[in-house]
Structure formats: C-alpha cells, structure tokens
Design a protein that fits this description.
80 residues, mainly beta, 5-stranded antiparallel β-sheet, two-stranded antiparallel sheet, globular
Length: 80
Amino acid sequence: MKKTKFYYDKHVDALYINLKKGEESYFEEVQPNVTIEYNKKKEPIGIEILNAASILSEILPKTNISLVHEKNPVYKASSK
C-alpha cells in the first residue's frame, strides 16, 4: 500500500493531501475551504484544505501529529 503524501504551503496556508495518483476530473467543496478532488472513475485522489493552520489547530492537539514548516511533506508523528 502506498503512503499518503501531505504538502503544506505556509505562504498561502494551504494543505494538500495526495491520496492517489491520477488526473483530476472534477472536485467537490465538502465544507468551506475543504475540497475533494476526484478522477474520472469518481475515486477521491486528493484533498485540499485552505486556511489549514486555523482548521487544523482544532484537530492536531488531539493527535500525535505536529505541523512542521518544510518544503517537503509537513506532517510527522511526534515522539510522544
């Protein structure tokens, strides 16, 4: 099974979660600032979260995941 990849752009505060390779056929906004991208088989291939820091600030304290600002994937499990 392939690992899910996470990318964060701190300049625009956007998080992209790459679920699967493929070309986007269409997208759906499931909540304000949260969009799911689908391929032509109607399979989810990615999730985009705008205003990610404020949205995730409510979720991350309840997990062992921390936000790190790097050019590469930005989420990693903490050593707690």
